[in-house]
Queue: 2 jobs
Job 1
Amino acid sequence: MNQPRPVFFISDGTGITAETIGHSLLTQFAGVDFDTTRIAFVDTADKARAAAEQIAAAGLRSGLRPIVVNSAVDAELIALLGESGGLMLDVFAPFILPLEQELGMKRQARAGQAHGLVDFAAYESRINATNYALTHDDGVDLDYDEADLILVGVSRSGKTPTCLYLALHYGVKAANYPLTDDDLESEELPKRLKAHKRKLFGLTIDPVRLQQIRNERKPNSRYATIEQCRKEVARAEALFRAVGLPSLSTTHTSIEEIASKVLAQFGIKKHMF
Amino acid sequence: MNQPRPVFFISDGTGITAETIGHSLLTQFAGVDFDTTRIAFVDTADKARAAAEQIAAAGLRSGLRPIVVNSAVDAELIALLGESGGLMLDVFAPFILPLEQELGMKRQARAGQAHGLVDFAAYESRINATNYALTHDDGVDLDYDEADLILVGVSRSGKTPTCLYLALHYGVKAANYPLTDDDLESEELPKRLKAHKRKLFGLTIDPVRLQQIRNERKPNSRYATIEQCRKEVARAEALFRAVGLPSLSTTHTSIEEIASKVLAQFGIKKHMF
């Protein structure tokens, strides 16, 4: 059997930048088996030496040169990591010089800064949005005046994780409203939603997939029968069409993609935290 | 007044990779005012042309050359975007050739693939973990056998958003337990936590900051007095020390950093979604 190729995501901060770009790079080499390890907060020479030893050991063990996706910015730390013998991919390095030239200034190098210090205002907007999503989940609280947007769909169509993702990443206040059997009897919007039509976005899902998800949650319930799922989805989609709601199928769409498309639909410019 | 420098995060997918690395790059140039715009799902020549026009217009308006952080991989799309006249920073380009050489194969170029198709198993692990976090939030459900870890701390110390972040991004099942006045009367672990000591991680926070957060939530309550916050935090920290729990102050720490440090503490290797 082939050994997997060792890959290390190294950072002087959380490692999220290194892991995000590294993961995107690796998916462009389908069929290769990678063994990924994250080493975060490498912000001293000692930690860089320890990381380099760990990388070198993985190379010896596997007989394959490790790939090091590195977002640490300090030259000394980078040099120490390079002693591992791994293939160094420094994620910021290629872009610093062109940016310095364009902006007419030197970047400020400081370990760990890439992810910034905590901005209390930004933190609060994320936390407030998260609390909002939690209290306006599944129609629990129906006061939607404060909502930036409201996701509408049948139970288990992906509303809750999308709302939480929008809150945690963008500080967007997203409520969600589950379409009940009663709601689905007509092709009109439920009364409580009518005043907020411009904030609504529909989520739909393939009935077979929905049935799988519901069956995991409530095995052998009526709720999880394929007939019930088919009926609810067909009616929800008919409702979206009848009232002209923008909508999206979540069946083959990741949470990130749903969130991204919803933001694009509403032209929400908030940047990611 | 100076015009802000226009910056565009362009992607053939969600734009998360471009935005993550772009944002990290920009923070290295403190003091520059940037006006950032995300254009996601640029996966056709028409969309690339429209994006290029939008970029060029921003350049004209501001009188400053736009910066384009681009994660689209198709050469034709990149060329069209380049016609905007912006400074092109292609986030994958510098790393593809070294990776191709190291792996002895060509990468597979396909628009939008960087973020992959949806992997149902991964999706399910995120959703299940999110449901777990929601049902095991603030001591609602006390069955911790399934938990990967349990965050412990006083009310509003940052437990809930961290649990949700761990669930959405890593598929980690994180429960949280709020320390009540009763719990804080002794320096022993609450009975329900004793059996799970190896899964526990303490969160603490500066009492002045805690007071601010609580006061926003319940203005002028006893809960939000500085005396109450000081007392709870001091006792929680004493408890962590007495029973030897690993802990972290969330005062100056972003959700990403808390999550990262918690994963490192438990040696959880799950990779980011």
Job 2
Amino acid sequence: MTSELHPKLLVSDAEAAIDFYTKALDATLDLRVADEQGVVNHAELTVGSATLALAQSVKEWGWNDPDSVGGSPVLITANVPDPDSTAARMVQLGAELVIPIENRPYGKRQGRVQDPFGHLWVISGDLRPGGRE
Amino acid sequence: MTSELHPKLLVSDAEAAIDFYTKALDATLDLRVADEQGVVNHAELTVGSATLALAQSVKEWGWNDPDSVGGSPVLITANVPDPDSTAARMVQLGAELVIPIENRPYGKRQGRVQDPFGHLWVISGDLRPGGRE
């Protein structure tokens, strides 16, 4: 069941993005809608019980990917069991670690990743006792 | 309980944004964290059972709002009982209706709104039988 509120990420390459998110976040592809040219205009993935949607950017529709826009004003926060491991996997798959995963004074272990499509992620989990700050 | 995946919207005026989203989406403010200058660096709202986070943009941290970036590559999809009513309320509160709320061939009644902070929303609900296309 699609949640009441979820982000739909516009990307320059929807197929590569589906591949990346399924591997990086252990997501399941639930829905993939493409037009006659094979352009994905809507895909929905499930991450645990949350929904992540995405689509190929289409300038004429005002659907702009991060490169076209010049960045992103939205941080997608992913609460995961092992943020260090998730971030490492994302980097292995082509993402960039922007801010290291560390224990934070506000009680979370968090860092920031920019995925290969330019989207910004806060990868977040529980504090690691005695872990690297 | 914060969901596994949720968007954190960077905005030029966090207080105004909290006010807008609580009124526009009937959201509840669960958490508001501000620094000594009163700048909100983290707020969490609940929309039904979903989480919406936001913070004041801070250029030095790489936290850029839509105006600074030049737009947004993320569409926040809100599934609501009455999309026409939600969109109208958002517009009344200062948003811009970008694409009208209409029955769509893929089985949803949807349209697009740009909120006063530049964030893009897909307001979505069930088809309205015999309603305006």
